[in-house]
Design brief:
Largest sheet of chain B: 6 strands, mixed
Number of strands of chain A: 0
Largest interface: A-B, 19 and 22 residues
CATH class of the largest domain in chain A: Mainly Alpha
Number of helices of chain B: 8
Shape of chain A: flat
CATH topology of one domain in chain B: Rossmann fold
Distance between the termini of chain A: 21 Å
Oligomer: heterodimer
Distance between the termini of chain B: 32 Å
Strand order of the largest sheet of chain B: 6-7-8-3-9-10
Radius of gyration of chain B: 18 Å
Helix content of chain A: over 70%
Structural class of chain A: mainly alpha
Number of strands of chain B: 10
Order of helices and strands of chain A: HHHHHHHHHHHH
CATH superfamily of one domain in chain B: P-loop containing nucleotide triphosphate hydrolases
């Protein structure tokens, strides 16, 4: 790196411009958020919108506070988080292993293909009643749902990543006398790291869909339960508050995966 | 001179659901030790297939291929393969890329690694050993790819159009580089190319193939003054040879 003083004036101006733009983007992002909440709050207070149906930000904040004290928000949050993370890990881990098997054996891949296509297009929510009968109406059923929704996409994404390995690189390794296992270890797995990372990102979203969907169906606790319960008893404050907490959790989990991405890329270099 | 590579009556037929295609038929040629042999032919005549057979990646339907008198198989092949693009693994440093054949063949000893380092030093890549392929120019990457094929000290090098992905300027200089390295290491090389001038400037012997099914049409031994491909290109006879082979190809 050159020292600051050795850059031309034009370059310094350019850097300044780029930095200014970034700051502007951030300010605007926060401004949009404040505007939405502000307008929402004002409209509800002056009675332009029916706050019974829409609730409003300060009420939501108070509800979150109350939930925290009275209804054990941490408990509900913990349950949902536990189900989501476990569902995510099982779907990703199992999906990766199955994709490896399917890469390894072309025959197996061809046999499994129609089943994977059917399972992929089937709306997993339709299996709800079966899952309840099999797993009971607790956390197990919800984790099962999260895995079911996540795993197919994980398999398909990973398998495509493995199959996209450069044919010429495989040829090169074969000419060196490499075994299939060596090709897997030296080329296919490290080469598909970018696919693995995007698979993780997709799977985070899938796991949330699965766990909330599952909680709608069967649960007696969790954020999904709070939302569906709030809807049934027409407590929109509760619905909005739970949804808001859910948004923050989902964003945090995505940020965790993004952090993992940075670590993985650094360690692979 | 000793025959290093020998193809006897090699034929290859492959099958699709609707057809049976005879790609190579009765192919005979050989290559002496430390000779530089080029194979040229009309496109789609199966040049790359011939290299795959020599490497043991494909088994010929009939005939035999031997290196130093022993039939080739994938497990015992003593050769280095160089492809169109450098095929360096982007997640490995140059050094780790060069070690790859040693890891695959399970001969990852300190002594072999030292030899790899010597090659990197000799051919000007030592300072870049900790860099990643993307940080190097196309020419340097192709040189690294050549060193990778040399570390296991193979008897025979197979080059499958190794320069065709490079732009013309780089191509001439990399061609020169590769030639010098191969001659300095006293290696035997078989080059597949569709570029007549490249073949003339590099080879001791040129084999012209017929269109499919591939057979040997004629053999040339261009004798040009000069020690490097670029010098040979400047030789006054160059055009004569070009003309001869051009006519033979059409």
């Amino acid at each position: 790196m050159k020292k600051n003083s050795s850059f031309s004036h034009a370059h310094l101006l350019y850097v300044k411009k780029v930095k200014r733009e970034t700051i502007f983007i951030w300010i605007m992002r926060i401004a949009v958020l404040i505007a939405i909440f502000g307008i929402w709050e004002i409209l509800a207070r002056i009675g332009a919108i029916d706050s019974f149906i829409t609730s409003y930000p300060s009420k939501i904040a108070i509800t979150i506070g109350n939930l925290f004290v009275e209804n054990n928000l941490i408990y509900h949050l913990g349950i949902t988080l536990y189900e989501t993370i476990l569902g995510f890990l099982i779907a990703v881990g199992l999906g990766y292993l199955i994709a490896l098997l399917l890469w390894w054996s072309e025959k197996l891949r061809r046999i499994a293909e129609p089943y994977i296509i059917v399972l992929n297009s089937l709306p997993k929510i339709a299996l709800g009643p079966i899952i309840i009968v099999w797993c009971g109406s607790g956390s197990r059923a919800i984790i099962f749902m999260a895995v079911l929704i996540g795993i197919i996409v994980a398999i398909i994404t990973m398998l495509n990543g493995f199959l996209a390995t450069d044919k010429n690189k495989i040829l090169l390794l074969k000419a060196m006398g490499a075994s299939k296992f060596q090709i897997l270890l030296k080329l296919v797995i490290p080469g598909s790291l970018p696919t693995f990372i995007s698979m993780l990102k997709i799977s985070v979203g899938m796991a949330w869909v699965g766990s909330i969907m599952g909680e709608y169906l069967v649960s007696r606790a969790g954020l999904g339960y709070l939302i569906i319960y709030g809807g049934q008893v027409f407590k929109l404050d509760l619905v909005m508050a739970s949804t808001f907490v859910l948004c923050i959790l989902a964003a945090l989990m995505y940020a965790t995966v993004a952090l993992l991405e940075k670590i993985l890329i650094k360690s692979s270099k | 001179m000793n025959k290093l590579l020998e193809l006897k009556n090699v034929g290859l037929t492959y099958h699709t659901l609707n057809d049976e295609i005879c790609a190579i038929d009765g192919l005979n040629f050989n290559c002496n030790e430390s000779e530089f042999l080029s194979i040229i032919g009309p496109s789609g005549c199966g040049k790359t297939t011939i290299l795959s057979i020599i490497a043991g990646l494909l088994t010929p339907t009939v005939g035999s291929v031997s290196v130093s008198g022993k039939p080739v198989t994938l497990k015992n092949n003593d050769l280095g393969y160089m492809l169109q693009k450098d095929q360096l693994f982007p997640w490995r440093t140059i050094e780790k890329n060069v070690y790859l054949p040693l890891e695959i063949k399970g001969i990852n000893s300190a002594e072999k690694k030292k030899y790899a380092m010597e090659l990197l030093k000799k051919y000007g890549l030592y300072e870049f050993r900790k860099n990643y392929p993307e940080q190097l120019s196309g020419g340097m990457r192709q040189r690294a790819a050549l060193i990778r094929t040399l570390v296991s000290n193979p008897k025979l090098l197979l080059l499958d159009e190794p320069f065709s992905a490079l732009d013309y300027q780089t191509r001439l200089s990399v061609c020169d580089d590769v030639y010098k390295i191969i001659k300095a290491e006293k290696k035997t090389a078989v080059l597949v190319t569709h570029d007549i001038s490249e073949a003339i400037s590099m080879s001791d012997k040129i084999i012209v193939l017929t269109s499919r099914p591939a057979k040997v049409k004629s053999i040339f031994r261009p004798r040009l003054h000069g020690d490097t491909p670029i010098q040979k290109r400047e030789c006054s006879d160059f055009g004569v040879w070009f003309e001869k082979i051009w006519k033979e190809l059409n």
